[in-house]
Amino acid sequence: MAAPAAQGGATARIVIENCAIATVDQHGSEYARGHVVIAGNRIESVGAGPAPAGLGDVVRRVDGEGHLLTPGLVNTHHHFYQWITRGLAQDCNLFDWLVTLYPVWARIDEPMVHAAAQGSLAALALSGTTTAMDHHYVFPRGAGDLLGAEIRAAAEMGVRFSPTRGSMDRGISDGGLPPDFAVESTEAALAATEEAIDRWHDASFDSMLRIGVAPCSPFSVSTELLREAAVLARAKGVRLHTHGSETVEEEKFCHELFGMGPTDYLESTGWLGEDVWMAHCVHMNDSDIAKFAETGTGVAHCPSSNARLAAGIARVPDMLAAGVPVGLGVDGTASNESGELGTELRNALLVNRLGEHREKALNARQALRLGTMGGARVLGREREIGSIEPGKLADLALWKLDGVLHSSIADPVAALVFGAAAPLTLLLTDGKPVVEHGRLVTVDEDAIARTTRAEAQRLARIAGLTD
Fold this sequence. Notes:
The chain is an alpha/beta fold. Helix content is 35%, strand content 20%. The model has no long low-confidence stretch (mean pLDDT 96).
């Protein structure tokens, strides 16, 4: 993508200074009062004190007094379409929740998915997210271009996007959870996935759009689909994603159907490796964690959703100690109604302290790393995003911490992670503003609120939830 130009054709610069900076680089470098210079869509320099004097082609200067600058957050697991089914099945575990909602989701169409993606992306951007991921796996016949609807919404918002083309081919009649009318044939799912990669995937350093391959879960897809999807992804050079080890019910399902646990089963189908990441991974034993570490398989940790569905507490401290790549995920907003990634920093820290490691489980800086560089590594983009370093893409979040909710916390990283959800003064993706002073600037968020409500009501009527 071309960098913005100043007068005379030179690369335009944005300067942010007088703010605290947490770079989240490999050394954990921080500046109590520093600056960042952005040239086009790249970070040109970062350091202590004011920006260098005499910079040319500066089109904007931002005074960051009272703020913390961090890398933009990176979401590693989501289901955008669920934005229009929030608040349903409020007191269910995962399997009961799925059985309740699959018949509703099987009635979505393209306008619904576009609206739901807008709502999901708005929540993500307003909570500091510059790279969004989505796992879309429900494709009712005749529903329209559902993946395209999400991609269009992300482009309109201006966020970096890593959608995955999901799929399900194991309906109830084959021993799966989804109703038969909600699944595709194996052949159709693979063909549509290949078409999505060929149509949209951009592997460039500056890419705003990368496609992944994502059969839904062991209890909704066939072994053949898992195996062939892995072959397809590797032939195309794209990443693989699925759900794994989310609940005790899933563990039981895999043992009964396949004679082994989820990790061993997924390994048998070619689903461990540096190009793979899995959502949740709550019920992992020592052998599972060791296999993930040995193969470089990543994890999308979704603390709020895991709590909402009473799935349990993932062993994140043990995974990190073993060297497993771990990022944060919102998960679908039917199991995390807030839809905000910023609050997952806090929830990851707090929930993991309820586990066996207690107060030693995670600290504030580890939580911030999960949400930034951890997510970048899980998505295979650690060379491009996830930290504030010269040469990386200008995906940055400037958090206002001098208001009443944060000003008495001396440590700005602690204020961001332990404190209330912090307002954003500026969110840049690819060097361009997406949020200014707590409002979306690329789209009309009030219009999104109206549209998502209307589409949620329309789906409820179609699905027979209302008269």
